[in-house]
Amino acid sequence: MNECIFCKMVEKKIPVEIVDEDEDILAFKDIKPQAPIHVLVIPKIHIPSITSITKEHSRIMMKIIKSIQNIAKKTDIIDSGFRIVVNNGENAGQAVDHLHFHILGGRSLKWPPG
Ligand code: 5GP
Ligand code: ZN
Hints:
single chain, alpha+beta, HIT family, subunit A, five-stranded antiparallel beta sheet, 2 helices, 5 strands, binds guanosine-5'-monophosphate, binds zinc ion, catalytic activity, HIT-like_sf, HIT-like
């Protein structure tokens, strides 16, 4: 049995506020937003992390990039700027082992991150 919470969101077993969706990707609002705009974009198939991506995922990865562009336009952060974050592994604090791209925007973001 798959215990991955993001897979459950894909299967619509856990409700989320959807921002973008097609047959390969899902984008939804983060439950604990760290900025006025905080959206997660995920592949619908279970890819554990950025280190698991292979050439076979090229089409899906391009779709994720297109979705990020569309969401940045839709949420009106395309001109003000935004950040894409992918936490990988323990030191980065990756809490969910299903690849996800954070889109953060709507405020000035500090650099370097903590
Ligand atoms: P990570 O720390 O793995 O990079 O990010 C996981 C993200 O998933 C966190 O920002 C967290 O707030 C978000 N998250 C965890 N559980 C849920 C949930 O049930 N619903 C939504 N919408 N976001 C979640
Ligand atoms: Zn999953």
